[in-house]
UniProtKB/TrEMBL annotation, chains A, B:
GO CC annotations, alphabetized: cytoplasm
Matching CDD domains: AspRS_core (cd00777), EcAspRS_like_N (cd04317)
GO molecular function, one term: aspartate-tRNA(Asn) ligase activity
Family of this protein: Belongs to the class-II aminoacyl-tRNA synthetase family. Type 1 subfamily.
Site (Important for tRNA non-discrimination): H30
Location in the cell: Cytoplasm
Reported function: Aspartyl-tRNA synthetase with relaxed tRNA specificity since it is able to aspartylate not only its cognate tRNA(Asp) but also tRNA(Asn). Reaction proceeds in two steps: L-aspartate is first activated by ATP to form Asp-AMP and then transferred to the acceptor end of tRNA(Asp/Asn).
EC number: 6.1.1.23
Oligomeric form and interacting partners: Homodimer.
UniProt xrefs under SUPFAM superfamilies: Class II aaRS and biotin synthetases (SSF55681), GAD domain-like (SSF55261), Nucleic acid-binding proteins (SSF50249)
Descriptive protein name: Aspartate--tRNA(Asp/Asn) ligase
GO biological process: aspartyl-tRNA aminoacylation
Presence of keyword Cytoplasm: yes
Length: 591, 591
């Protein structure tokens, strides 16, 4: 029906007869001549209809926005004054000779170029129209390119694409599962997988050696801006590879991807131990596009009288840090108040600051309500350690370590964005040497999942669970966790040690992971892997602010699809077959 | 950890030092020397340990089946008398110098080579062991190769890989949906998709032009041998392509696949109208590896007295056919009785037959209980029309058209298999020109789905729904439907006409397909597509008899996973969150 995509036409096609199919992007009538901007997947081209060709011209007069057309015509150069250098096809136009209206269109509920004026709900209700917009077309095309490139890379590296079940058993990730009632097993439920974790480990036990899958995963969580009930993971697992080798092959994948798709060389990814990331950036996913670091000043403030600082400075569970922000002296009192409110989200009780106006004047050149509490000497020592110069501001955090790290870590990123302090466009890194466990309410919880291998023996682990490190690794790009993984436990004794430390009783082990423990008995190879969040990767690559802009048919924040009206009501017959019923609402007491 | 896969070693590696990782397939002790067959993904290689190397030898003595080893050693030629030509690595062996036991294995519940002796339930319970078998390894590797090849082909042809939702609204395919209770929308349910049908049509409305997805689909059906609750579809859709063009691009895909993966040239696929397929093969998915056809003999039997044939021969709703089977005269009376039972499954009330012993003797050379009812002349006319020769048998079917087609169509395949009458290994074809509707209980039902475009105008369709043909096409290979699709309806008036003929009221249209009907209003392009069943394709390519042999973690026939014990019980807290409860079992009346 079409000889070529109209959006690909250029001067090299001049004088060719072409048949195009597409949508009317705009239609203008200039002195009796009809100009149609015809849109297809590849772009837009101008088609011109003169009043000469009788029937076809009258049809051209009749067309309106979003009509679907088949056009035959000849490509010709535009006159010099009508060349449009903003259009890829702007040097040429198609002189139309035949026009077929393949379908009409009612007036659309919103114009493509006015989408920002309609609410997102309207865009989601008419998703098929919203997807016609350039931005959405580009996002989903890039997504397709990315998955293709990833698959090719993994295929070239000997990974096998193996599907794991969607109807499965509750997974141990800990978030809420989506459940599916079983009709054939009375009162029982499948769970949709939160990840293929256990299945991919079993595939290693089976000897497939290298597995990958671009896998749908599900979590019935309360949705935040960047979450969806179903999301997509680039999931992989390998046997007989060390932590280093796994990191090398996956780093190679992301580097190749950025080269191929974005023409960007990410270079070698630096490694950073978890402890260093927390110390310098207050985050386990530091955004290294920002050079600012948290600077420890605990030692400087131990002996001052000001309790707000001296207290934490003398408490081992606290940290006291400074964050120097380039050019921050320009911030107004009101802006600083806003940032004070911002850090309070993370539990910070205040936000002390010093503005550096004329450092060469010493203490006189600084401006701050807290200098009098710190004293001149300490103040100047802090200035020196942070390297503050004229025009900068130095913020302070002094509280429990977790509060300071989170508050100043977040403030660092927020100020970086607000003041545009980025010094590079892309900043990848690996965060490594995670602790195995964190202490929560007096018990140990796995920092990753309970299948993560430690860097030590079972005996050492049991002796010092609090300081043991794991063989886990996270890939971070621009402050976003792109993916994470670990070498897994492949020996049953180690797996049981970890379960014991986590306080998972034998009955619960058997009930939840019996099949995995069984599998470890029969010659499980050393193995490990990684999972990348595809949606987030695409968000980064397309610079999208919402996950919904990189998914064809996303759910709203209440986990609904306003287009298809899902979830929907079902009838009693269906529920009866499943042997379930809806819980009766409690009726308001009568009288 | 490994320098090379042991299974890839051959004479070209002689004298190389290698490090291998893998499983102990077998371990033998010959005169103090230990021979280990070490297995990895690529195959098996023999490793030899002499009593020389102290520690390593004692470890080699200790290893048992399915232990996981890391072996260092040197590749050397086997002596002429020990070369094993049945093994890919049979010319060489590895002289082991170091051995590390990476993991031990308890005695496995069944030996790899004894899997046929254990029930399938045991194999499924220990699926991770069952998957170590060559057959399963090969099946899943081929599956991975197939999906990779398909993706590459579709990518090369401009198809975009776009994901559609798994949590969605009930789909109109008509089978039972799997339901997922929503926690955030009280009393409402998502449905798992039976196919991405409506979403892919909407993607065409959005202008993506060519879409594909290797998509999980779900049906809560009573399971037959070749069904699974979740199955995988190669799903695609295109815009602005005719039926012919869609068939060409998908035929090209399957042809390329067979060339690449199997080294088989399938050639051009013949086309066969549905009516011809039913007439000649009694099936809409004829197995053309078998040359036998059903031969119409209605005209010959109209005037005989024998009511069993004359009745149907004079009834327009019946058909009377003969099926000649080469070499069938060898069948015993007992065997024929078995086939009579077989056709009774399809409703046939009997199975008349004539054996051809010496056709040159005329009626004397035939053997049959029915010749006396047919009369000599009619009998010989039937023999002539079927072309029966010495050693053949001719079966008869005379009943309602549907019964005869199904019974003799199935008998044709069964006899073809039993007597090995195949004349080719691969026989693909397209079945085309399907009727739009079939009459069931006095109403019209869509033969494909209600979005299939007819080959005529809405007016013509309304006037003659019974004879209207659709633009649907099925790809058939060796008697299996590989895939099916159609040009879709892209105009709203046509879609509504079809809904009217199907008796779907406006309220129901709106309720079920409102968003599709809406989308057709706003410039839907002409579009059409196809879906292939991936599991069946892999079954054919690997010559597997069970769909469970081409899926890594399949469900049993009662839709359960005996390995993970899914579906499982859930606690009341979870049910409360979902606002559902289990239906009370009716208690047996007391007393």
């Amino acid at each position: 029906m079409r000889s070529i995509y109209g959006g690909t036409l250029n001067a090299s096609h001049i004088d060719q007869e072409v048949t195009l199919c597409g949508w009317v992007d705009t239609r203008r009538d200039h002195g009796g001549v009809i100009f149609i901007d015809l849109r297809d997947r590849e772009g837009i081209v101008q088609v011109v209809f003169d009043p000469d060709g009788q029937d076809d011209f009258s049809r051209a007069e009749r067309v309106r926005s979003e009509f679907v057309l088949q056009v035959k015509g000849k490509v010709r150069a535009r006159s010099a004054e009508t060349v449009n250098s903003n259009m890829a096809t702007g040097e040429i136009e198609v002189y139309g000779t035949e026009l077929e209206i393949l379908n009409e269109s009612a007036p659309v509920p919103f114009q493509m170029d006015e989408y920002t004026n309609v609410g997102e709900d309207v865009r989601l209700k008419y998703r098929y129209l919203d997807l016609r917009r350039d931005e959405m077309q580009n996002n989903l095309r890039l997504r397709s390119k990315v998955t293709t490139a990833i698959r090719n890379y993994l295929d070239d590296n000997g990974f096998l694409d193996i599907e794991t079940p969607i109807l499965t058993r509750a997974t141990p990730e800990g978030a809420r599962d989506y459940l599916v009632p079983s009709r054939t097993h009375d009162g029982k439920f499948f769970a949709l997988p939160q990840s293929p974790q256990l299945f991919k480990q079993l595939l290693m036990v089976s000897g497939f050696d290298r597995y990958y899958q671009i896998a749908k995963c599900f979590r019935d969580e309360d949705l935040r801006a960047d979450r969806q009930p179903e999301f997509t993971q680039i999931d992989l697992e390998t046997s007989f590879m060390s932590e280093e080798e796994i990191m090398a092959v996956t780093e190679g994948m992301i580097r190749k991807l950025f080269q191929e798709i974005k023409g960007v060389d990410l270079g070698d990814f630096p490694r950073m131990p978890f402890a260093e990331a927390m110390e310098k950036y207050g985050s386990d996913k530091p955004d290294l596009r920002l050079p600012q670091q948290l600077v420890e000043i605990k030692d400087l403030l131990k002996d001052i009288e000001f309790k707000v600082f001296a207290g934490p400075a003398n408490d081992p569970s606290c940290r006291v840090t400074a964050l120097k922000v380039d050019g921050g002296a320009q911030l107004s009192r009101k802006q600083i108040d806003e940032y004070t409110k911002f850090v309070s989200i993370y539990g910070a009780k205040g936000l002390a600051w010093i503005k550096v106006n004329e450092i060469e004047k010493g203490i006189e050149g600084l401006q701050s309500p807290i200098i009098k509490f710190l004293g001149d000497e300490v103040t100047m020592a802090v200035m020196e350690r942070t390297g503050a110069k004229n025009g900068d501001i130095v913020f302070f955090g002094a509280d429990k370590a977790k509060v300071v790290s989170e508050a100043l870590g977040a403030l660092r990123c927020k100020l970086g964005e607000d003041l545009d302090l980025y010094t590079s466009e892309w900043a990848p890194l690996w965060v490594v040497d995670f602790p195995m466990f964190e202490e929560i309410d007096g018990g140990w919880t796995a920092l990753h999942h309970p299948f993560t291998a430690p860097s030590c023996t079972p005996e050492e682990l049991k002796a010092n669970p609090g300081t043991a490190l794991s063989q886990a690794y996270d890939m971070v790009l621009n402050g976003t966790e792109l993916g994470g993984g670990s070498v897994r436990i492949h020996r049953q004794d180690m797996q049981q040690t970890v379960f014991e430390i986590l306080g998972i009783e034998e009955a619960e082990q058997e009930e939840k992971f019996g099949f995995l423990l069984d599998a470890l008995k029969y010659g499980a190879p050393p193995h490990g892997g990684l999972a990348f969040g595809l949606d987030r990767l695409i968000m980064l690559m397309t610079d999208s602010s919402s996950i919904r802009d990189v998914i064809a048919f996303p759910k709203t924040q209440t986990a609904a699809c306003v287009m298809t009206d899902a979830p929907g009501a079902v009838n009693t017959l269906q529920l009866n077959e499943l042997n379930i019923r809806l819980k009766q609402k409690e009726k308001p007491a009568e009288e």
